[in-house]
Amino acid sequence: xxxxxxxxxxxxxxxxxxxxxxxxxxxxxxxxxxxxxxxxxxxxxxxxxxxxxxxxxxxxxxxxxxxxxxxxxxxxxxxxxxxxxxxxxxxxxxxxxxxxxxxxxxxxxxxxxxxxxxxxxxxxxxxxxxxxxxxxxxxxxxxxxxxxxxxxxxxxxxxxxxxxxxxxxxxxxxxxxxxxxxxxxxxxxxxxxxxxxxxxxxxxxxxxxxxxxxxxxxxxxx
Length: 222
What we know:
The chain is α+β, with helices and mostly antiparallel strands and 222 residues long. Helices cover 55% and strands 7% of the residues.
């Protein structure tokens, strides 16, 4: 297979959104196929496209890749966003894993029962302000550089700007106590590839709504 990477998922954020972010930040155009029915999903499994019977599925460089972390690691390596040596790569991986823990809470939030939404929103705010964002505020302050690792744009920077914007959608003032992250957000948002991704009409998906939740439950129902 040649040409643009092909992404198969639902027409919404979910686990594919971080992959869209990473490709877009690397300046890579991609095509998307959207799952809308359980039959489409079952056919992918039957045809042997999904190694572990799960999406995201990304077709790139002749491979049919599944597992979000593996896909993103490959993209980061291919486009030189994974550090210059093993130590930088280890730091990037640690930061990415931490951000992924926060993003998992955001990912599951739309599926919260109505009576749990307020509590879950408070948990996201608490974790972001007390556990995750202080780490990156300290890192940026200590080395005084624009990027998290090696003074060079990396996968970790892409994950962090995605997380900041996702939390801000739910807690608009979340960065009020983090001046370094405020500067980071502005710089990242003005990088040409990211700025383009943030414009209306880009492949970036809107926050999950009731229709998206309904589609997810329909496609993946047991």
